[in-house]
Each structure stands twice: as structure tokens, then as C-alpha cells.
Amino acid sequence: MDVTVPEIPARYDGYRAELRRFIVDHKPTLGWKQRSGLRVPEEEADVDALREWVRSLYDAGYRLAQFLLEEVDEHEQRILEQELGATGLPFVLGNPLVAGALKAFGTPEQQARHLPPMARGDHIWTQLFSEPNAGSDLASLQTRAELDGDVYVVHGQKVWSTWAQWADYGYLLARTEPVPGPKGITAFILDMHAAGVDVRPLREMTGTTDFNEVFLDGVRVPVSDVIGARGEGWKVANVSLMTERTNVGGGSTGDIAAALVGVARAHRRRGRPAIDDDSVRQAIGAFSARSRIQRALGYRVATKAAKGAADMWDAPVTKIWFSELNLEVAEFALALQGARGALVEGDPDAVDDGAWQDRFLYARAWTIAGGSNEIMRNLIAERGLGLPKERRGDIS
Ligand SMILES: Cc1cc2nc3c(=O)[nH]c(=O)nc-3n(C[C@H](O)[C@H](O)[C@H](O)COP(=O)(O)OP(=O)(O)OC[C@H]3O[C@@H](n4cnc5c(N)ncnc54)[C@H](O)[C@@H]3O)c2cc1C
Predict the structure, then answer these.
(1) Which among 189, 188, 185 is positioned nearest to 177, based on CA atoms?
(2) Which domains does the chain have, with CATH numbers?
(3) Is 244 a catalytic residue?
(4) What number is the average pLDDT over the span 21-39?
(5) How far is CA 220 from the centre of its chain?
(6) Is pLDDT of 220 > 70?
(7) What is the mean predicted confidence (pLDDT) over 366-377?
(8) Ligand 1, atom 3, residue with closest C-alpha
(9) How far is Cα 136 from Cα 371, in angstroms, rounded to an integer?
(10) CA 254 → CA 88, 92, 286, distances in Å?
């Protein structure tokens, strides 16, 4: 499998230039976290502005492959992701991992009803998998859905549901069969505006509200909103989890060398510019090399996944590599900044408007999202390398 990242041919320069012009003309200005890493908006006005932004992209033909059933031009897609990523603004609203599940397991009616509005920002989605006692051990989830005529009635609690406070739909896992473990789980489309859905936002140490608790009290879900077959939710969910790990692993650490050189030039160490310190230069070189490996790994896993040739340990390896590199880079940059590194967006003395501080605080999240790195290492060891399985259950 080719692991080099192919060059984008020069004939795509016009596409890139046109897209850049479009971005300049349509990119919204938001009231919150415009500069230091917006993930989930805090204000309704910002949600509306983001919906308008995503809608304008979609209507102009700038559409992301993850929502499309048809083939797309791979170079245009890469340019789209690069240029939109560089805006620092969300260009996918909510947590749309359900798109992959709908493409693989949804009925044509479900695909037609949900994929275009999801792509256009008209429908925002959240993912309702994790529960207070079921995160790493997701198969032990307790939310239940009981069949009552042509609806399921859902009771339970979810947590860490990103974007749920703004969501129109939820990608829900619930237990429909009276058996423990993965066999009893079914995947559903849940209308987040239905009676019995109660969303309670959680404030994180970043100062933002990315996550929510979601309480489900007798929520009625039509049988037609089951994704795939009843009792096959685990199979459906695993497609999404693989995609999530691939996405996290494909996350960009950006031009690390340029960014860190900038910080090292602007700060002093032992009375001299930090960039003059050999150990600083060596560290930046090492980060830069690891970031190139990350780029190649991300490209490799995405290419293999697109060809249906991914091995189950590809996404975990990439996810671990990205998330640990990203964390170390953030810690290093803050160490260079000294006390100023503690300042956040809005403070006139904050370095790069608090972007590094936000990155530092959020970096640990990527070591957990989509399955913690400990669990990823278990997967690689047990299923990738065939090492003996760890002991599970009560070991007291
Ligand atoms: C940024 C982010 C976004 C998220 N978005 C969503 C979302 O939209 N929807 C959703 O449903 N969930 C979401 N989650 C939740 C995420 O899936 C869980 O946090 C994750 O699966 C871990 O579960 P937990 O938090 O319950 O931790 P636990 O499972 O309680 O784990 C606690 C610690 O124990 C370790 N551990 C557990 N079991 C083992 C083991 N067998 N071997 C070794 N170590 C172990 C873990 O690695 C971890 O360090 C999100 C999380 C993050 C960080």
C-alpha cells in the first residue's frame, strides 16, 4: 500500500483559488472563540451563522465525500478539507458519524431523508453512545428501547454527547434484546425535539460547552428509524467507531515547525531568544518529523479505508500517533511561553490570542475520544499482534 501523500496536480490550482475567494466572501464572523479554536458554538446566533456558512458551501457545490453516495474527485476533496480546515471554523456541524452508518446500513429512504440536510447544515446530529457506566466498555450500555406496536419506547441516560444542545437528531444505541453485551443492541435515529428528550450541557475546563448529558424518558421512536436490523447495532456502531478513529488520526497538527519557530522566536530562554537554544531547535525538528509521519499515517489509513482495505489496527495506530503528538506539541509550546502561556483568548497579553492554551487544555480529549488510547493499545495488541487477551471482569 502506497503511503506517500500524492501531490495535488497543478491543474487544481484554479479550483483552490476559486474556493479561497469563496471562503473570503462567505466566512462568518462569530462572537465566541473565533480565534482560539471553536469546536461547538455557545450562542444561538453563532449556530445560525454556521448553518448559513455550511449551507452556502453546499449550495455552491463544495460538498464533502462523507455525506455523498456518489464518487468524488479525491484531489478536490483534499483541497476542500485543507482550505476549510485552515479557516479554523467548523465546516461540518455536529457529530455526523451517523453518515457512514446510514451509507452502509441505512435504507434508501433514510439516506435520502437525512444525508443531504446533514451535509447542508440543516440538520445537526449528535452521537448518543456513551453512558455514565459504559464508555470504554460500550457493550455494557443500559439504555433500553422496548417495542410497543410500531414504536420503540426509550428510557436511559447518555453522556459526553458532543453538540447535543444544538442537535436536531441523535444517533442512538439502545438495548432492545434482554441479553447482555453487544448482541442485544440496536442503532436508532432519534428526533432530538421529541417529547422526553432532556439535554443538559456540561461546562469543561476549556471554558466551552462541547458535551452534554442527555436524558431519555419514554421517548417514542418509530420502527422505521432503526438503522440496519434490530439487534445488529453493534455491527453498525463499529463502522462508525472505525470512522471516528480514522478522523481523529487524520486530525491536523498543522505546520508544526513554522508555528513552534514563531513561538520560540517570540520568547526568551536564559536571557536569549528561545530559538537560539540548541535543545529547542532539536525538539522542534523532532516534532516536525513526527508530524510528517502523522500526515503519512493519516493519509494511509484514509486511503485504505476508502478502498475497503483497512486493517482493524490501522485507525488505532494513527489515532494514538496524532493525539499524543498533539498533546506534546501543546505542552512544549506552553513551556516556551512561560507564565504568558496561561492566558486565554481575550487577554491582550495572550500568545496567539490564547490558541495554544486552548489547544493544551483540549489536547487530552483526543487521547480519549473515539476510544481511549489505552483501549486502542489493547486492540492493537490483542487483535493486531495476537498477544494474549487482558483479564476482564472482576479481578478482586
Ligand atoms: C472529545 C470527546 C468527544 C466525545 N464525543 C462523544 C459523543 O459525541 N458521543 C458519545 O457517545 N461519546 C462521546 N465521547 C465519549 C467517549 O467515547 C468516552 O469518553 C470514551 O469511550 C471513554 O469512556 P469513559 O469516558 O467512560 O472512560 P472509562 O471507560 O471510564 O475509562 C476511564 C479510564 O480507564 C481506562 N480503561 C478503561 N478500561 C480499560 C481497559 N480495559 N484497559 C486499560 N485501561 C482501561 C481508560 O483508558 C480511561 O483512561 C467523547 C469523548 C471525548 C473525549
Answers:
(1) 185
(2) 10-92 (no CATH), 125-230 (2.40.110.10), 250-384 (1.20.140.10)
(3) yes
(4) 80
(5) 28
(6) yes
(7) 92
(8) 369
(9) 6
(10) 11, 19, 15
